[in-house]
Amino acid sequence: MKINEIKDALKATILAGQNQLDENIVGAGSADLMEDVLSAATEGCALLTGVVTEQVVRTAIIAKVGVIVFVRGKQPEKSVIDLAASYKIPCLCTRYSLFVASGKLYMEGLRGLDGSW
């Protein structure tokens, strides 16, 4: 699924990575504990989270996450968006809860990675 399709499915706004919307995402996972992301993420996946700190971006860098989706309408500070943009990690924001956003992507055909998320 392309990032643009994720944006449309979640009625999300683009916070970073406007020019990367055609990139393909291989799967998705939802987590607020970054240790869970590090233990389960696959390169090129979508990370759905309610955490809006720089730690999310730093974790995404290490895990090679393809896109970060901030849920519940949470808006990260400019420094977080700037950090993501500097590492070319697209970021989206949706008003949906973590549960609903995950379900919507699942219904659109984007599956979990290995069942551990």
Q: What features would you describe in this structure?
A:
The protein is an alpha/beta fold and 117 residues long. The chain has a single domain (3-107), classed as HprK N-terminal domain-like (Udp-n-acetylmuramoylalanyl-d-glutamate--2,6- Diaminopimelate Ligase, Chain: A, domain 1, 3-Layer(aba) Sandwich), CATH 3.40.1390.20. It has helices at 3-9, 34-40, 54-63, 78-86, 98-107, and strands at 13-16, 28-30, 46-49, 67-70, 91-93. Strands 1-5-4-3-2 form a five-stranded mixed β-sheet, sandwiched between helices. Helix 2 packs parallel to helix 3 (54-63). The longest helix is centred in the middle third of the chain and has 10 residues, at 54-63.
CATH architecture descriptor: 3-Layer(aba) Sandwich
Secondary structural class: alpha/beta
Radius of gyration: 12 Å
Spatial strand order of the main sheet: 1-5-4-3-2
- Identify the CATH class: Alpha Beta
Q: What's the story with the biggest beta sheet?
A: 5 strands, mixed
User: Which term fits the overall shape?
Assistant: globular
Query: How would you name the CATH homologous superfamily?
Result: HprK N-terminal domain-like
Kindly report how far apart the N and C termini lie. Answer: 18 Å
Provide the CATH topology.
Udp-n-acetylmuramoylalanyl-d-glutamate--2,6- Diaminopimelate Ligase, Chain: A, domain 1
Q: Output the number of helix runs.
A: 5
